[in-house]
Amino acid sequence: xxxxxxxxxxxxxxxxxxxxxxxxxxxxxxxxxxxxxxxxxxxxxxxxxxxxxxxxxxxxxxxxxxxxxxxxxxxxxxxxxxxxxxxxxxxxxxxxxxxxxxxxxxxxxxxxxxxxxxxxxxxxxxxxxxxxxxxxxxxxxxxxxxxxxxxxxxxxxxxxxxxxxxxxxxxxxxxxxxxxxxxxxxxxxxxxxxxxxxxxxxxxxxxxxxxxxxxxxxxxxxxxxxxxxxxxxxxxxxxxxxxxxxxxxxxxxxxxxxxxxxxxxxxxxxxxxxxxxxxxxxxxxxxxxxxxxxxxxxxxxxxxxxxxxxxxxxxxxxxxxxxxxxxxxxxxxxxxxxxxxxxxxxxxxxxxxxxxxxxxxxxxxxxxxxxxxxxxxxxxxxxxxxxxxxxxxxxxxxxxxxxxxxxxxxxxxxxxxxxxxxxxxxxxxxx
Length: 431
Description:
431 residues
């Protein structure tokens, strides 16, 4: 059983339920094709799982009598890796009369921060060795005949068809996402590339023609892309006319021949960024949450240096408990949201964090004391407007402190002084 669940919140951020989906093995049986292709020895697809990186890959879902004659559910798959870059393996223990190949592709069932992230699911395509090699064998026959007719034409056809057509068509068939393939050899200056390469790299027609003839120019272009990348995993951001896309380039070199695969990973990066936003964002107010505050201030601590102008502003709402008791929690939540919007508007040049129920912190860089003092006054004036329609007298206590390189060892020292100043402000209001 594969299970997904996600909490549901109303417009005010209150939890109202959980939405869940379960996919049963029976459902997979119904929808997993038992065969593919026209050949009689077509084994189709199976699904395998493993509990962790070091655990064996086991068969989880089978369909069709042909698969069940070779495999059993739950048994480990013994495989020899043939092509690591494309997940191609030769299966062992399938009998003396059968030579089966498998294309193993991880399905990415769970995100990294879920309870079952260690469990890996794989879609495994199976094909008989004779079927896999049928097309290359037919091409080899044609090349042999052509060689007898003309030695020159046979050599040209062998280079073009065997190296271009067979290799790249096989790679494209195994890919489930837009993929481009290119090949460069140090023995000549040409670059062989599939039709997807210019589209994924957003090359102009002139660039495509020039790179196809000039290996060094193409290599220099790729180096330039890598130099612009700030991602450690090698993903590259391309921006053309305001349209962003992400690609990942994998390269391998053997015997003077470099083969590269270009993948479009735009959707993967968008989902990653959405997860980062959800992780760092406070659901009620839209400002950053305490987790983001702790992580980002830890990064600031590593960059603290003498002469750096850095200020922390501590804010705490006045009368929130009375508002909840007298008018209900809906009014209290509206009070908090109004305060968050006012703080973000007033300190437009800073980062705003909600670190508690009615506590906010603002991190300011390169602001002068007079500027901060004026912004604090503007914030208190803005908060009074909430009382015009709320029915009670709102207010906010504010304290701030600047980083002092001689006395402060970290931002926590600055925050402590800002917090103390905030409580002094609150005390004076109560008096």
